């Protein structure tokens, strides 16, 4: 991720990412927030915004993106590559999932290819269907009655009569609410998922 960010031109950094309302630069800065702000600033922001994690994130990220250049973000990522989120903020699988999804948030709008590693996608897909992801990564109700099938991975998840099929990367982004991948999915559950995301 550090290598990717430090190669981006200013015009790319200020391109809107797939993460709604955030530029590529802001998404990159967000990845540094946990060790720069720490729980003492993150938790009060979440409480202040009525436990709406995305709103709290937006407030913190705006400040951080102003303070850090792309080069500084890359440096921070390298220095903190082994950083572990405090468990009360996000479980380790959430940390892995966040990095994979935000990498695609950056690359897809820029027309860049970034292949995700199947062995890393599989635990993230499982995590997104688990109760631990509800309310932060996945809004409650989004996945109800849906069964997800990754056509390029040996993975099926979720419970329901309606199916959603696609590549693992597209499913990962759909589960986290990125509408750009909906046309890459097939199955009887796509219409329901589209309605819930859009």
UniProtKB/TrEMBL annotation:
Q: What InterPro entries has UniProt attached to this entry?
A: DinB/YfiT-like (IPR034660), Maleyloyr_isom (IPR017517), MDMPI_metal-binding (IPR024344)
Query: Which molecular function GO terms apply here?
Result: metal ion binding
Which residue range or ranges hold the Mycothiol-dependent maleylpyruvate isomerase metal-binding domain?
Answer: 2-77
Fetch the Pfam families from UniProt.
MDMPI_N
Name recorded for this polypeptide: Mycothiol-dependent maleylpyruvate isomerase metal-binding domain-containing protein
Q: Which organism is it from?
A: Actinoplanes cyaneus
